Amino acid sequence: MYLIKRRTEDDGIFCSCSPSPGSSFTCDGDCPCGMLLSCCSPSCKCGNSCLNKPFQHRTLKKMKVVQTAKCGKGLITNEDIKQGEFVIEYVGEVIDDKTCEERLWEMKRRGETNFYLCEINRDMVIDATHKGNKSRYINHSCQPNTEMQKWRINGETRIGIFATCDIKKGEELTYDYQFVQFGADQNCHCGALGCRRKLGNKPGKLKFSSDAALKLVVHELAASSPTMKGFLHRKNVCDTIFC
């Protein structure tokens, strides 16, 4: 659901795939478009039989939301999933950076610790807090069995979750959140071998207090646009957090 003007961009990718040897499909596992994480365009010679349209032709996997022992709600698969298969799309409200910042301030005020924000690209964020699907219940693991991928579909960026290994029925679905930790450390309870013990605890990632992180966000917004800088000063945001 878009809460901002829907944007599509010409990514310069046109489907010019040629048939794979011995295959009845033009677009097979070695499809050039797929290698670029781009779904084939309507001009694809395969038509409706194209194998490189995981978002358009996706078969919904059977999944169930469960209560985990230490990580709140989680998501398990009710069927076997093969490595490389499309699992689910990460969906929610598509908002801009300004709205994202406002929501973060409000979440901080309410003392919330669970966030369902996923950056699509510059000035576009998916917020699955209020409107989303089962993908928001996928927990973190330091050794996950799925990963997020950004795909281009007719000039639009969408987020898909794909299996990185064969997953058996009944296993919990996980991916590596790979986020920058703001504020106090959060313990990781994934139980994987080589667990990093703390969420967001990755080499080279900076750690900020919540206030410092918000100051950084506002500073970058003010620096990026004279209009935004004027808006923030009118709202006394800059004066409040930089005093």
| Helix percent band | 10-25%
The helix/strand series, from N terminus to C terminus, equals HEEEEHEEEEEEHHH
* Shape field: globular
Biggest pleated sheet: 3 strands, antiparallel
Average predicted local confidence, pLDDT: 75
Rounded to the nearest angstrom, the radius of gyration is 20 Å
- Biggest sheet: strands side by side, in what order? 3-9-8
Low-confidence stretches: 8-12, 203-210, 237-243
Written overview of the protein:
The protein has 243 residues and is of the alpha+beta class. It has a domain at 208-243. It is built from five helices and ten strands, in the order H-E-E-E-E-H-E-E-E-E-E-E-H-H-H. The strands form four sheets. It has a three-stranded antiparallel beta sheet, with no helix packed on it. It has a three-stranded antiparallel beta sheet with strand order 4-6-5. It has a two-stranded antiparallel sheet with strand order 1-2. A hairpin with a 5-residue loop joins strand 1 and strand 2. Helix 2 (97-110) runs antiparallel to helix 3 (210-224). The longest helix is centred in the C-terminal third of the chain and has 15 residues, at 210-224. The chain is globular, with a radius of gyration of 20 Å. 22% of the residues are buried. The model is unreliable at 8-12, 203-210 and 237-243 (pLDDT under 50).
Task: Give keywords.
3-stranded antiparallel sheet, 243 residues, disordered C terminus, globular, 20% helix, alpha+beta
Question: Helices and strands in order, then pairings?
Answer:
Elements: H1 32-35, E1 63-67, E2 73-77, E3 86-89, E4 93-95, H2 97-110, E5 117-121, E6 124-127, E7 139-140, E8 146-153, E9 156-163, E10 174-175, H3 210-224, H4 226-234, H5 237-242
Parallel strand pairs: 7-10
Antiparallel strand pairs: 1-2, 3-9, 4-6, 5-6, 8-9
Helix pairs in contact: 2-3, 3-4
